[in-house]
Structure prediction request, 271 residues.
Amino acid sequence: MAVGIFDSGLGGLTVLEAVANRLPSQTFVYMGDNLNAPYGVRGTSNIFDLTTKCIERMWEEDCDLVVLACNTASAAALKQIQEEWLPKNKRVLGVFVPLIESLTKRNWGDNSPPREVDVKNVALFATPSTVASRAFQRELAFRAIGVDVESQACGGLVDAIEDGDLILAEALVRSHVDALKRKMPTPQAAILGCTHYPLLEKVFKDALGENVEVYSQANIVAASLSDYLNRHPKMIGSNKLKNIFITTGDPVIISRRATQFLRRSVEFISA
Prediction:
């Protein structure tokens, strides 16, 4: 049995790297819906349809557990997937809740009422669809009160990263941070609400300033997945096999981009 890691593009590879380092004996299947990326400008029903189609493809690779390492899919589709679509013997997890648990210092299973937390002003950088969904604010409200969240839709940033144009990507980060600061001049914390953004974490930190704590998802999700598997050992694979990389796009092009992305050789196969 393998654990599936899904993203609309290459950003989820940041999560895969972290979880693979944390769980070296676990087999992983990564799937990128590169043909339809980016999801951040798509509507909710379209995101749901695309995401579920890819999850079904990962089931063919014996992935009873799939992690949506895509904030847009987690924000727009996860709730409906879990409540209306998912068979009882399958599990799909998102990336928002582990991030919020880390921000609010609340552990999994803590169902106590929302309470005040140390952080009062939070900047959220995410795709337009994630921002429009208000999923981060909704999940945060279950755990904390008195937190002001200011969102910045980072249009164009995922495209620049996927295209490997890091000069443009850095310029866009600084522009989006400036726009956020005009709305919230002194955030205490910043959420990088897209799995592509950790590649530019240093740029975000430099633009935000040293007094802002930046939360990036890869290591947080890796720790959360490790905890989940400890609590659900039936989801752990019995034998370590070679990790598989699947794309809906051109596998030659995506393999080349992923190799540049991770700075090691990665070979994708066609979905």
